[in-house]
């Protein structure tokens, strides 16, 4: 038992190690030589950790972005009370979560082996967050005295089913985008991706493909994703900075003081470039880690699960439609601003617009929306993402997870979790 | 021998190309180290062969010192094989 918990914590609870092992296994099964095995395994782990480092840079930049826009709208997050919170929740249910994740992955492999749904979920960090959020929902639905193994098995089955079926349902739409059947999307943005493709078909115009935007020679710099990210964020940062400097409220003064001796405008511009730098770092990490895991996965897939396909993180769809990525994010950003104001003024909930979720999910929705509805489809997809994330966060934090981990739900929960959350809660009440 | 598979962002498409190049090389019995990367990073790398599309080859320029192999369909192993063997045997 202790060994299992140790393995669950140190192995499956640490995505970099888990993925390193998967790559190692894949390379060994392919009978690669020692040099290739070592270099492949190391690069996969390093790549995965680079992604974390890049994400930290992005989060750092967003750390000035979010309070800035909250102050622009004069919103304040009301203090939540009477919940466990991530730290206390982990201490009490953490091993159940990691164990459920471990067994859920085995359920996924078994389902891939014996059903026609040949998808193996490999997005380790999302595996962890989704299990955590669903555990929070289950514990709240059943109560704190939920039996340990009951919780573990319940979650393992749900996760295993989700990790197998989510890529399977998304695949027909993804196949049209990638033009091949080699990889699948294993990411919690699948619901907004599918909805965007469907809405794009109805309301979009496929003839205006975002990828056919022919930029004049003078605007050639817009082809580079680094440049466009910095530009978008730069505009938003500078607009926010100017508004704060005009507003001069105590909150605004406090934020402006963070720039120190530097001009607040220059400080804001540097923050937007820092955000773009974070994205560039993430992409380097993604290349190193995906570049090892995909070929290694082929090794495992062909040996253990004949005909299996890897389900991978959101950025695998970005290269197929880089313009749509930006348009989708823009749609999500505009939507988030609108819902921020609407939610604040109607139900009185202060939406925390986590740019990471809006960017990664909005971008996926943009690519899927563009595939059926062109530029308009991509924009609609982005807006839909913001709608699901904003209202989903309000409903989840207020009703389904308010005694367990609402803090985590505010920054780590996203599209699929919000849509499936009520179903998980209902099932939990049914089974316990 | 060091070979680069190159696409715009150096993420998905070039990875598929890299895997197909590796498959083709295995069939040909050629031992090579294949990496995938984006077009701007590829310019500063010292390699023997760069495999990419016509459009990106223009962006790449001629100052890389590598043989540039043009492939139109990244998923067509027969085309990759033809283009590669021409470059390797020349």
Automatic annotation (TrEMBL), chain A:
Belongs to the UlaA family. It is found in: Cell membrane. Keywords: Cell membrane, Membrane, Phosphotransferase system, Sugar transport, Transmembrane, Transmembrane helix, Transport. The chain crosses the membrane at residues 6-29, 41-65, 93-112, 119-140, 146-165, 227-245, 265-286, 325-342, 348-368, 380-402. It comes from the Bacteria. It comes from Listeria swaminathanii. PANTHER family: ASCORBATE-SPECIFIC PTS SYSTEM EIIC COMPONENT. It is a multi-pass membrane protein. This is Ascorbate-specific PTS system EIIC component. The phosphoenolpyruvate-dependent sugar phosphotransferase system (sugar PTS), a major carbohydrate active transport system, catalyzes the phosphorylation of incoming sugar substrates concomitantly with their translocation across the cell membrane. The enzyme II UlaABC PTS system is involved in ascorbate transport. One of its GO terms (cellular component) is plasma membrane. NCBIfam families: PRK09410.1-2. It holds the Pfam family EIIC-GAT. One of its GO terms (biological process) is phosphoenolpyruvate-dependent sugar phosphotransferase system. Homodimer. InterPro entries: Ascorbate-PTS_EIIC, PTS_sugar-sp_permease.
Automatic annotation (TrEMBL), chain B:
Keywords: Sugar transport, Transferase, Transport. It comes from the Bacteria. Its EC number is 2.7.1.-. GO terms for biological process: phosphoenolpyruvate-dependent sugar phosphotransferase system. GO terms for molecular function: protein-N(PI)-phosphohistidine-sugar phosphotransferase activity. Residues 1-90 form the PTS EIIB type-2 domain. Pfam families: PTS_IIB. Gene3D superfamilies: 3.40.50.2300. SUPFAM superfamilies: PTS system IIB component-like (SSF52794). This is PTS sugar transporter subunit IIB. It comes from Listeria swaminathanii. The lineage of its organism: Bacteria, Bacillati, Bacillota, Bacilli, Bacillales.
């Amino acid at each position: 038992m202790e060994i299992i918990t140790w393995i669950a914590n140190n192995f499956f609870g640490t995505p970099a190690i888990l993925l390193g092992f998967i790559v190692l296994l894949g390379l060994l099964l392919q009978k690669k030589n020692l040099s290739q095995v070592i270099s492949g395994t190391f690069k996969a782990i390093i790549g995965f950790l680079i992604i974390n480092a890049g994400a930290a840079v992005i989060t750092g930049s967003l750390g000035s972005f979010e309070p800035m826009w909250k102050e622009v709208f004069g919103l304040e997050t009301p203090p939540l009370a009477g919940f466990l919170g991530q730290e206390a929740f982990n201490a009490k249910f953490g091993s159940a979560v990691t164990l459920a994740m471990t067994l859920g992955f085995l359920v996924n492999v078994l389902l891939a082996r014996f059903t026609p749904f040949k998808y193996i979920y490999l997005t380790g960090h999302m595996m962890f967050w989704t299990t955590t959020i669903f555990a929070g929902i289950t514990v709240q639905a059943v109560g704190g005295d939920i039996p340990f193994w009951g919780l573990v098995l319940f979650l393992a089955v749900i996760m295993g089913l989700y990790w197998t079926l989510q890529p399977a349902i998304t695949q027909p739409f993804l196949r049209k985008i990638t033009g091949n059947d080699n990889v699948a999307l294993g990411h919690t943005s699948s619901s907004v991706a599918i909805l965007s493709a469907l809405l794009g078909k109805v309301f979009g115009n496929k003839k205006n493909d975002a990828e056919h935007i022919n930029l004049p020679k003078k605007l050639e710099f817009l082809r580079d994703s680094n440049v466009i990210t910095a530009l978008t964020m730069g505009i938003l940062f500078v607009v926010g900075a100017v508004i704060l400097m005009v507003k001069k409220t105590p909150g605004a003064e406090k934020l402006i003081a963070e720039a120190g001796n530097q001009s607040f405008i220059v400080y804001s511009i540097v923050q937007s470039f820092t955000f773009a730098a974070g994205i560039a770092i993430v992409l380097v990490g993604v290349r190193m880690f995906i570049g090892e895991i995909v070929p290694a996965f082929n090794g495992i897939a062909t040996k253990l699960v004949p005909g299996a396909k890897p389900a991978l993180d959101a950025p695998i769809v970005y290269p197929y439609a880089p313009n749509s990525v930006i348009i989708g994010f823009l749609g999500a950003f505009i939507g988030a601003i609108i819902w921020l104001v609407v939610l604040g003024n109607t139900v009185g909930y202060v939406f925390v617009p986590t740019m990471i979720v809006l960017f990664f999910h909005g971008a996926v929705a943009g690519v899927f929306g563009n595939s059926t509805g062109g530029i308009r489809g991509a924009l609609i997809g982005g807006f839909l993402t913001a709608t699901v994330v904003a209202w989903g966060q309000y409903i989840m934090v207020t009703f389904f997870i308010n005694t367990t981990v609402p803090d985590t739900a505010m920054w780590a929960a996203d599209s699929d979790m919000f849509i499936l959350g009520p179903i998980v809660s209902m099932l939990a009440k049914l089974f316990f | 021998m060091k070979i680069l598979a190159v696409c715009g962002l150096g993420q998905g498409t070039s990875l598929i190309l890299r895997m197909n190049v590796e498959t083709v090389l295995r069939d040909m019995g050629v031992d090579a180290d294949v990496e995938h990367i984006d077009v701007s990073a590829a310019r500063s790398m010292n390699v023997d062969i760069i495999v990419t599309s016509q459009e990106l080859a223009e962006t790449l320029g001629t100052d890389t010192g590598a043989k540039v192999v043009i492939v139109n369909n990244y998923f067509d192993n027969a085309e990759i094989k033809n283009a590669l063997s021409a470059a390797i045997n020349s």
